[in-house]
Amino acid sequence: MRTIHVNEIKDTVANLCWEACYYLPDDVINGFKKAEEKEISPLGKSILNQLIENAEVAATEHMPYCHDTGLAIIYVEVGQDVHFIGGTFQDSIHEGVKKGYSEGFLRKSVVGDPLLRVNTNTNTPAIIHTDIVPGDQVKITVLPKGGGSENMSAMKFLLPGEGVEGVKKFVLETIEAAGGKACPPIMVGVGIGGSFDKVTGIAKEAIMREVGVYHHEPHIAQLEKELLEDINKTGIGPQGLGGINTALSVAIETYACHITALPVAVNIQCHAARKKTAII
Amino acid sequence: MAEYHWTTPLTNEQIEKLHVGDQVFLTGTIYMARDAAHKRMVGLLEENKPLPVDLRDQIIFYAGPCPPKPGQVIGPTAPTTAYRMDPYASAMYEYGVKGTIGKGPRGDTVKASCEKYNTVSFAAIGGLSAILSKCIQAVKVVAYEDLGPEAIRELEIKEFPLLVAYDAYGKDLYEQEISKYKNRL
Fold it and tell me: Would you call B43 an interface residue with chain A, using a CB distance cutoff of 8 Å?
């Protein structure tokens, strides 16, 4: 049994919030650079260059890359041999988000009630996903998720017989409907299988996959490559202003599902594809 | 495609010169307002009441900034997705707003309003927040302070880079550019 004080969780979450927002991951910046080399639209090329420069300015001056510092989505893998002391685990995460968004000068983008719409001014509550795993460590990932691309995400139950072609059609329809509204170049996370709740969850996990890494199963990796090509043929391009780089990646995650169902979810990540992990 | 370096307020003659794809580097005063502020303002217009700030002949920047760090004028700032303001845009253009700044494509009602009221809808790059905030030289909250990042702010900008996305002639830059690159991969 390992004992961890919840203050350690709070402080780790706080640091991850601002670190994620200031320093765009290398795989995303490298994705911009590769896209910039390939882009045939002069305007698209110029936009990609400005995004690369924006990432440099944000990192050098320790400020958010994008003003929409998002809804804080927190993934925690808790080792089953860990015992928390000093308070509750859930509160320590919300308190960490509050601290990180305040001390990091991040925008508070959360309204407490979706209909009354009064800003909580703390960016809490966070969305917390907890998994119990073997071991005595705690792995925390913070995904500050921007609203523009989240708004363009979609879920649908296909008929089982629609198969791969049905999945491709739904993904492409979703991306075409999103167009420039989702702030391309985007990372596309696709969930296939599971249930109503599971499929959107795995689509969101998919957007955190490193750009340029394909699924370990060949038939899924093949589908990812085909979808990426189809998406980049739409012409939407950087910012929806035309080009051959609408998406930098398509990542698919799958799960077993009911014999009646073929659920599909598309979670769109804008170019501010921020994620940061720490292990305690 | 032309390039202009202009100072606000923009005149009717200047708006008439603009065509989709033109670049405008804008200097002067503009106003920041997004979803919640628009809902309130259009509510006032529907009741024939005055707005808390006179926005006639002005440019509205659809955005909500990060808080400034010590020493900064404003935190990172870039346009939010423009189509969310589409339900309010016709009323605002009719009221007298000369232009709006956002990101992403907009609906047909905006296209029609730009033509009808001789106004434009500009695009700036979404998420270019670290860079764009450097074009802002002064900021003050002028209305709806309770809305926090959604309050109406008056900004002094310098050479703020914009593209004409929808002009007063009913043209659409997004449609035009996407059609050029469809199936080009």
Answer: no
Where in the sequence is the domain holding B80, given as residue range(s)?
3-171
| Mean confidence (pLDDT) of chain A | 97
- CB contact under 8 Å between A65 and B76, yes or no, is yes
Contacts across the A-B interface (CB distance below 8 Å): 158
Q: Which CATH number goes with the domain that contains B137?
A: 3.20.130.10
Q: Which of A181, A269, A172 is nearest to A226 (CA)?
A: A172
In chain A, which residues have their Cβ closer than 8 Å to the Cβ of B125?
Answer: 47, 50-51, 239
* Cβ(B167)–Cβ(A219) below 8 Å: no
Q: Note the ipTM here.
A: 0.96
Of A117, A179, A235, the CB nearest to B180: A235
| Token couple for A140 | 């925390």
What domain count does chain B have?
Answer: 1
**CB within 8 A of A274, min separation 6: which ones?**
A20, A21, A24, A25, A65, A70, A143, A144
| Per-residue pLDDT at B185 | 87
Q: Which of B105, B130, B183 sits opposite A179 (nearest CB)?
A: B105
Q: What is the pTM of this model?
A: 0.96
